[in-house]
Write a structure and sequence with these properties.
With about 160 residues, the chain is mainly alpha-helical. The protein has helices spanning about 5-30, 40-60, 60-90, 95-120, 120-125, 130-135, 140-150.
Amino acid sequence: MKNLASYLLVMFMVMFWIFRIVIAFTATMGIEIGIVPINMTMELILLFVTILSIILVIKRKLVGGILYLLSYGAYFGVDLYNIIMNIINQSANVTDYASAFMSFLGVLLPVAVLLELLFDKNRKKHPKDKKTDWFYQNEQFDRKYDERADKNNYRTL
């Protein structure tokens, strides 16, 4: 993760995950905030799958983006389609509009994460971390240091 887009997308993933935890918690406690989970069992499974996909996206693995897109697309995509059909048939209420917005975010975020992983040039070019490469793979500076050290002969008393 070298660029700003990667950091922002991971932050949005974590924020949306925390938001879904709050939604699941309020639904189990019986508190009504306007957004309800589609299926509580699938919501809990999705929360654990999201942890795995966030870790894989941080490690820049393409499998994490695909897993994130498949899980969120299957969960939020069907709900988004049903809500859009309710809006077209003019049988939607206010909570449907809020759920449609959250489902739209739930579909848009994984698509953005997968596209960012696909188009990231540094993921394939530099799979190693450059923070340690200077120490382990830099023989040029080792030779310069050795030559300079041989010329500097100080007397010790």
